[in-house]
Design goal:
The complex is a heterodimer of chains A (401) and B (147). Chain A is an alpha+beta fold and 401 residues long. Chain A contains 15 helices and 7 strands. Chain A has 2 domains: 236 residues, no CATH class; 147 residues, Pnp Oxidase, Chain A (Roll). In chain A, helix 6 crosses helix 8. Chain A is elongated and about 90 Å long. With 147 residues, chain B is an alpha+beta fold. Chain B has a single domain, classed as Electron Transport, Fmn-binding Protein, Chain A (Pnp Oxidase, Chain A), CATH 2.30.110.10. In chain B, 23% of the residues lie in helices and 44% in strands. Chain B contains 3 helices and 8 strands, in the order αβββαββαβββ. Chain B has a 6-stranded antiparallel beta barrel. In chain B, strand 2 and strand 3 form a beta hairpin. Classes of the chains: A alpha+beta (401), B alpha+beta (147). Chains A and B meet through strand 1, strand 2, strand 4, strand 5 and helix 15 of A and strand 1, strand 2, strand 4, strand 5 and helix 3 of B. Strand 7 of chain A pairs parallel with strand 6 of chain B.
Chain lengths: 401, 147
């Protein structure tokens, strides 16, 4: 895969290549500040130039930090298990690192627009900060280019992310069988879009710098609003893409039981539970007095196995194992999630009609902790997946000869 | 000796759900056999996650249960917990040989359709039962096994 110019600089040219991650950004920030401070002292610029220049440098540093995470994220994607979705992701990756460097042109466009504006239409800022000194302006142009280039990258990257989300969301509705995009990749996309929100909001820091000029102020308000809302929209779409293939989603909807495993205390602990799937996550309920709940409160790492057992045909069996973190809902986080919990409760009522009626008929036989008092004694638990494995059919036993 | 209800469950079920410890807990459906005393056996590929986990921590639990989709009062099951011991094929002590041969016979009769003979083959794992919890409908019983 191709790389961005900035990434190449950071990887190949010392001293950047000797530093890692955040240190590159800090080093770059200090270097630029040093140059800026020296210039402002040599040409005796007013303090406002120093302050606003430093603020601009901070924006550049934050943006380059965010930019540096994009390429490793894209390289971490594994092939999607759906051909159409794989195509979408591949095309998205190729556009992102296109050898013709379209992101450069977006930046160039912004740069040209800003310089022409500052020279021909409203040179006020040049005087306000730079006192029309040619050498200072030359240095400022480098900084303006840096800002414009990164603002361009921001637009290019997060518009592509948004288009990717729209396309993946549409494609995910036409999945069949085991087609899906992997959970970790969807999560990585979501993280990327969250950085897009940060990328956009960072531009607000330029507001005090450009506020003396009302037209440029307009752009510095529109840019972050546009980019952040686009990224937020992209997040909401990518969250709607199911991380499970339809085959497994169907199994989760149909299967009435799940096994919940925990490291336990003396020995690991595993028990059957009833479960529902709301299209995104699996929920089960447990009694507040149960051992399982006590364990989960201590360590929220759990495994949930859901399977379909066909006693006549073992080769038709299917199973899915989801490992992740358990999140329980009780009185302290019940209200903010009320709509989700009502939906989950309704799913339980539909799926376990017979169970509920059997329990209400023979209530006196139940232990106190089992009587149906939702939220007080029965706690809904959501599993937030980290890894998913699924099997189809059974594996034969191999006896050595 | 295990209680009667638990022995019935262990002798009449084809699937068990094995929970092992790792960075996250791990569950796998397994075929198993019961030696009618205090041990269960299962077979697995040496490179599987459960074997890796067992080598780090031999404490395991296994659930065997009967589920009734319509009446929860008929749900019945047992969780047996104990220590797992791995027998590598080809590295079995002579005095264990007879026992292992007997266990293979148990697998052959219980899972005849699902047996393959292959050089190398699976590792055999014994679970020595230490603790049992049994439930029927909403009622629980829990006991320790004295060896």
């Amino acid at each position: 895969m191709d790389k961005w110019i900035y990434e190449l600089i950071v990887e190949k040219i010392p001293p950047f290549s000797l530093l890692k991650g955040d240190y590159v950004t800090i080093f770059q920030l200090l270097l630029m500040l040093l140059v800026g401070i020296s210039i402002s002292i040599i040409y005796s610029l007013p303090p406002r130039s120093l302050i606003m220049g430093s603020l601009t440098i901070l924006v550049v540093a934050i943006w380059s930090r965010l930019t540096l995470t994009i390429a490793p994220t894209l390289r971490s994607f594994r092939p999607s298990l759906s051909e159409i979705e794989n195509d979408i992701i591949e095309r998205y990756k190729n556009l992102m690192f296109n050898p013709r460097h379209p992101e450069l042109f977006v930046g160039l466009g912004i740069f040209i627009f800003v310089t022409i504006y500052l020279y021909y239409f409203n040179p006020f800022l040049l005087g306000y900060y730079l006192q029309h000194k040619p050498i200072v302006i030359a240095f400022a142009l480098i900084l303006i280019w840096d800002v414009a280039y990164r603002a361009g990258i921001g637009l290019w990257v997060y518009i592509l992310c948004f288009i990717r989300s729209v396309k993946l969301y549409k494609a995910s509705k036409r999945r069949k069988g085991l087609e899906h995009t992997l959970l970790n990749d969807l999560k990585a996309m979501e993280r990327m879009d969250r950085r897009g929100v940060a990328y956009g909001l960072t531009a607000f820091l330029l507001f005090p710098v450009l506020s003396p000029d009302k037209y440029l102020t307009f752009f510095v308000i529109v840019y972050p609003i546009f980019l952040s809302s686009l990224s937020l929209l992209s997040i909401s779409l990518i969250r709607k893409v199911p991380w499970l293939p339809p085959d497994i989603a169907e199994l989760l909807e149909k299967a009435k039981f799940a096994y919940v495993g925990h490291e336990g205390d003396l020995f690991p602990h595993i028990t059957p539970v009833v479960q529902v799937f709301d299209g995104r996550n699996v929920y089960f309920v447990t009694s507040k007095a149960s051992k399982k709940f006590k364990f989960i409160k201590r360590n929220n790492r759990i495994a949930v196995l859901i399977d379909e057992r066909d006693p006549k045909d073992f080769f038709g069996n299917k199973a899915v194992l989801i490992v992740g973190k358990a999140k329980y809902y009780d009185l302290h986080n019940f209200l903010p999630n009320i709509f989700k919990l009502i939906k989950v409760r309704n799913l339980f009522m539909q799926k376990y009609k017979q169970y509920i009626s059997a329990y209400s008929k023979r209530k006196e036989e139940l232990p106190v902790a089992w009587r149906l008092t939702p939220m007080l004694k029965r706690i809904p638990i959501e599993i937030q997946p980290e890894r998913v494995i699924y099997w189809r059919g059974v594996r034969r036993i191999k006896i050595g000869l | 000796m295990l209680p009667y209800e638990v022995r019935v469950l262990l002798n009449t079920n084809y699937f068990g759900y094995l929970c092992t410890r790792g960075d996250y807990p791990h569950i796998a459906p397994i075929f198993f056999t019961y030696d009618q005393r205090e041990s269960l056996y299962f077979m697995s590929d040496f490179s599987s996650r459960k074997i890796k986990n067992i080598m780090r921590d031999p404490k395991v639990s296994l659930v065997v249960d009967v589920r009734d989709d319509n009446d929860p009062f008929n749900n019945e099951g047992a969780m047996v917990s104990g220590f797992a011991k791995i027998y590598l094929p080809g590295e079995v002590e002579l005095d264990e040989y007879h026992d292992i041969y007997t266990i293979y016979e148990l697998f052959k009769s219980k899972y005849s359709e699902f047996i393959e003979f292959e050089e190398g083959g699976d590792v055999l794992v014994e679970i020595r039962i230490e603790k049992v919890s049994y439930w029927r409908g909403p009622h629980f019983k829990s006991f320790r096994v004295k060896l």
